[in-house]
Write a sequence for this structure.
């Protein structure tokens, strides 16, 4: 589509009205507003009205934008550049590398644009097709090494129909802008292909064969892997009030979950917390590979101190990158923190457009947008027989911890896991502060179903007994009931809680999870013959501390077996008191 021109007619913070002067304008296309000094501000057309009136959301600060400033409409939607070199980078919400921007200006200046991927880097290309082969969109042309993986080079996914390879580059080193292949369509038209290509961010990539998520994704967090698991290709909602531990939980998931690639989308979260990720992750050693954690991580940073309009773009850019690495046959985990701030940005834009508001002034279509976002997760069987997955975990920050607000409810309807954070648990310094009874998951656990059901039944019984103790005191219940209450409290303290700062207890492998659960259930099943509330409480306090000390040791540590025997001896002591 040819470029068309227009002029600014109104400015309301990030919403700019315009009159286009010639040619058609497409909803969703990118435009550039030229302001005094020659700087060009990137914007997106979000509404087209009769009479040549259009509205744009500007991705940068609109100070000094004046009525009459010229606008150039590109005819193209907002796109993300996909190719080797994404992993290990940190970009803003428009895929500008933040470290490269910092080299140009100490503060982020308006109008600065940097190539998303390094165009000078050389990549060692190995072809997988030959001249005369028939290919279509998504066919693998070859591969290059990227960090820990072999990065597949594709025919762009938006090319439909069959093409013939007219030429393919020999094995060697090339940049992402060098032509590596040329293809010919049925009409004889030739097209040159590079290692990188662009994809519209709001268009989901087509699945080859989509499968139902069914394989548990180990996260290293015991309460999740046992009671509220997420599957490879699954979705999860993580709502909670301020200070309940959402960000700490997200950081643990990024570090310890058994995903090949982790994408962190800081879409509107506080800048201080996002900067912690930027600073810490390059220094952290990946426990799975021994390399830097950044070697398998991509971070999109569009924090609360950055332009509001770019939050939506940052979410979709991160999602496209996740879909792309799923096409590589990898297991991808995306952490969006927080989708509430994205929804609030949509609410601001909707209000300026004078749309009819929905509940709590959010757009009427907010539920559809959230559902479409989570629907882009999933498991994909690829043409070469490999399987890739894309899992999405979205943090929600409801005002006042109110889970009945529209964004939380829309997210609950769109996801397979609900990890509700509790203010009471976080105030009691319990981590993770995930509500043991109100949270849920529709995915299979690393434990057997009957074990999960028995664990939940014990926790429900313990909560009921705790309510009775609160009303009547310990004297109002029998010793047998008090023993059951202590067993429930012990399970919560030694199995569901973790010390996130401890190198051993902070992450639990599936094998260690099974070992710990068997020991816990040994305690639950064992009869206790001790009489008297004081003696019962003392017994379980000793048992709890012995178990916690065992949690801090690795199986090959010198004192591991001795500590295990101490726990077993305490269990026997309770049976023969």
């Amino acid at each position: 589509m040819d470029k068309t021109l227009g002029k600014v007619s109104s400015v309301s913070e990030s919403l700019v009205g315009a009159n286009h002067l010639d040619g058609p304008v497409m909803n969703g296309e990118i435009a550039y507003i030229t302001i005094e000094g020659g700087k060009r501000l990137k914007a997106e057309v979000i509404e087209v009205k009769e009479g040549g009136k259009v509205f744009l959301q500007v991705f940068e600060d609109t100070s000094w934008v004046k009525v009459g400033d010229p606008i150039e409409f590109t005819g193209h939607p907002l796109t993300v550049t996909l190719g080797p070199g994404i992993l290990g980078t940190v970009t803003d919400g428009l895929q500008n590398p933040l470290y490269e921007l910092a080299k140009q200006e100490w503060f982020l200046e308006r109008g600065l644009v940097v190539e998303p991927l390094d165009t000078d880097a050389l990549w060692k290309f190995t072809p997988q097709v030959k001249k005369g082969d028939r290919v279509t969109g998504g066919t693998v042309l070859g591969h290059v090494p990227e960090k820990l993986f072999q990065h597949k080079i594709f025919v762009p996914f938006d090319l439909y129909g069959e093409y013939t390879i007219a030429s393919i580059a020999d094995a060697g080193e090339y940049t992402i802008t060098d032509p590596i292949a040329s293809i010919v369509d049925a009409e004889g038209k030739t097209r040159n292909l590079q290692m990188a290509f662009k994809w519209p961010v709001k268009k989901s990539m087509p699945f080859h064969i989509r499968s139902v998520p069914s394989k548990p994704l180990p996260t290293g967090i015991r309460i999740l892997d046992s009671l509220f698991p997420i599957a490879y290709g699954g979705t999860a909602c993580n709502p909670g009030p301020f200070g309940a531990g959402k960000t700490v939980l997200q950081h643990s998931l990024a570090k310890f979950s058994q995903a090949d690639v982790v994408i962190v989308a800081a879409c509107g979260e506080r800048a201080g917390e996002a900067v912690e990720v930027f600073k810490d992750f390059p220094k952290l050693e990946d426990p799975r590979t021994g390399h830097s954690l950044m070697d398998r991580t991509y971070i999109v940073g569009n924090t609360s101190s950055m332009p509001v309009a770019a939050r939506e773009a940052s979410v979709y850019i991160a999602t496209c990158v996740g879909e792309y690495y799923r096409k590589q046959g990898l297991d991808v985990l995306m952490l969006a923190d927080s989708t509430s701030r994205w929804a609030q940005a949509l609410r601001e834009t909707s209000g300026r457009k004078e749309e009819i508001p929905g509940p709590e002034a959010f757009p009427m279509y907010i539920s559809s947008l959230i559902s479409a976002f989570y629907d882009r997760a999933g498991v994909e069987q690829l043409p070469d027989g490999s399987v890739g997955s894309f899992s999405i975990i979205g943090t929600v920050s409801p005002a006042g911890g109110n889970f009945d607000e529209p964004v939380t409810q829309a997210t609950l309807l769109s996801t397979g896991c609900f990890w509700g954070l509790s203010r009471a648990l976080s105030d009691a310094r319990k981590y993770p502060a995930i509500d043991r009874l109100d949270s849920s998951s529709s995915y299979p656990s690393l434990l057997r179903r009957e074990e999960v059901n028995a664990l939940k039944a014990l926790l429900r019984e313990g909560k009921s007994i705790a309510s009775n103790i609160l009303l009547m005191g310990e004297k109002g219940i029998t010793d047998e009931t008090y023993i059951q209450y202590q067993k429930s409290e012990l399970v919560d303290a030694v199995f569901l809680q973790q010390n996130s700062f401890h190198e051993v207890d902070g992450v639990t492998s599936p094998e260690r999870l099974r070992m710990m659960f068997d020991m816990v259930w040994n305690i639950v099943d064992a009869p206790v013959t001790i009489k008297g509330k004081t003696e019962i409480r003392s017994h379980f306090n000793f048992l709890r501390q012995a178990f916690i000390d065992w949690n801090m040791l690795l199986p090959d540590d010198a004192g591991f077996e001795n500590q295990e025997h101490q726990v077993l001896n305490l269990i026997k002591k309770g049976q023969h008191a």
About this structure: The first strand starts at residue 4 and ends at 12. The CA atoms of residues 554 and 560 lie 7 Å apart. The chain is about 30% helix and 25% strand. The two ends are 85 Å apart (CA to CA).
